[in-house]
Amino acid sequence: MTLTINPELYSQLLSKYQPRIIKTEAENDKFLEVVEELLSRPNITPEEDTLLELFVKLIEDFEDKHYQLNTSTPHSRLLHLMEARVSSADLGEVFGSSEIVAKVINSELEITLEQAKALGEFFHVDARQVYFRLKVVG
After folding, report:
1. Would the pTM of this model clear 0.85, i.e. be above it?
2. What is the CATH number of domain 70-137?
3. With contact defined as beta carbons under 8 Å apart, do 124 and 106 qualify?
4. Cα 67 to Cα 78: distance, rounded to the nearest angstrom
5. Of 57, 59, 26, 53, which is closest to residue 38 (Cα–Cα)?
6. First vs last Cα of the chain: how many Å apart?
7. At what angle do helices 46-66 and 7-17 cross, to 10 degrees?
8. Where along the chain do its domains lie?
C-alpha cells in the first residue's frame, strides 16, 4: 500500500522546518529536536511521517560522515569497556568462566546473545542494543 500525502500540507511542513543538508553540530541538534518532537506526537500524519523520514535520513548522513562509530569491532568495544570499568577477572561471572573471557578477549569466541544480555546488565545498558551492535556494526 502506497501512502499518499497532501502536497499542500507537506509543503507547509517543509516551509516551517526547512530541512536541508546538515553541515554543523548546531543544525544536527536542531533537527534532532524536530525528530523528537515528531516522534512524541500520538497521531502523526502521513505528511509528518514523510518529513520525519527525511530528517532521519539527513541526520544519519551527517552522523555517518562525522562520527566514526562503525569502525570498532565487538572485540575492541569489549576491551574498551573493560579498560573503562572492569578487568577480565570481573567478567568471569558474566561469561561463566575466566577461560571463556580469555577466549572472547583473544577473539577465539564470538559473544552469544545470552552473553550480550549479561553484558548489558553488567554495564547497565540495553542488552538488545549490545547484541544488535555486536552483530550489525561488528
Report:
1. no
2. 1.10.260.40
3. no
4. 19
5. 53
6. 34
7. 40
8. 7-66, 70-137
Are 115 and 124 in contact by the 8 Å Cβ rule? The answer is no
Q: Which one-letter amino acid corresponds to residue 61? A: D
Query: Over the stretch 76-104, which tens digit does the pLDDT of each residue have?
Result: 766 766 666 666 777 888 888 888 888 88
Report, in angstroms and rounded to the nearest whole number, the Rg of the chain calculated over CA atoms. Answer: 21
Query: Distance between CA 18 and CA 60 in Å, rounded?
Result: 17
CB contact burial 60-78 (16+ within 10 A = b; e otherwise): eebeeeeeeeeeeebbebb
Write out pLDDT tens, residues 100-126.
888 887 888 888 777 877 877 777 765
Report DSSP state, residue 97.
Answer: S
